[in-house]
């Protein structure tokens, strides 16, 4: 890993973190779902078009890595379970997994279309 890679990760991470914070207006569970879904779509797009080097590290590790938020999802699920809202917790995790996979596929399909 080079100094340029570290810079790419730092810049992408800052951008992804700020974008994640901007989604907080949607509320805890919706904002997390939106962030995880969009990050998966970005990853699918990047993988399909073969982004590597500086831009790969910037977009995949930096932006998508900081934008997606599995730790916040775990916190929110824990809160739902503690509040005995197990159905809501199950729906939340299923939506994150399903929409994330769907967004990854859609991003990949869009990337293939671009090429």
UniProtKB/TrEMBL annotation:
Keywords: Cell membrane, Ion channel, Ion transport, Membrane, Metal-binding, Sodium, Transmembrane, Transmembrane helix, Transport. Na(+) binds at residues 65, 68. It is found in: Cell membrane. This is Fluoride-specific ion channel FluC. InterPro entries: FluC (IPR003691). One of its GO terms (molecular function) is metal ion binding. The lineage of its organism: Bacteria, Bacillati, Actinomycetota, Actinomycetes, Mycobacteriales. GO terms for biological process: cellular detoxification of fluoride. The chain crosses the membrane at residues 6-26, 38-67, 87-114. Fluoride-specific ion channel. Important for reducing fluoride concentration in the cell, thus reducing its toxicity. It is a multi-pass membrane protein. Its main location: membrane. Pfam families: CRCB. It catalyses: fluoride(in) = fluoride(out). Belongs to the fluoride channel Fluc/FEX (TC 1.A.43) family. GO terms for cellular component: plasma membrane. Na(+) is not transported, but it plays an essential structural role and its presence is essential for fluoride channel function.
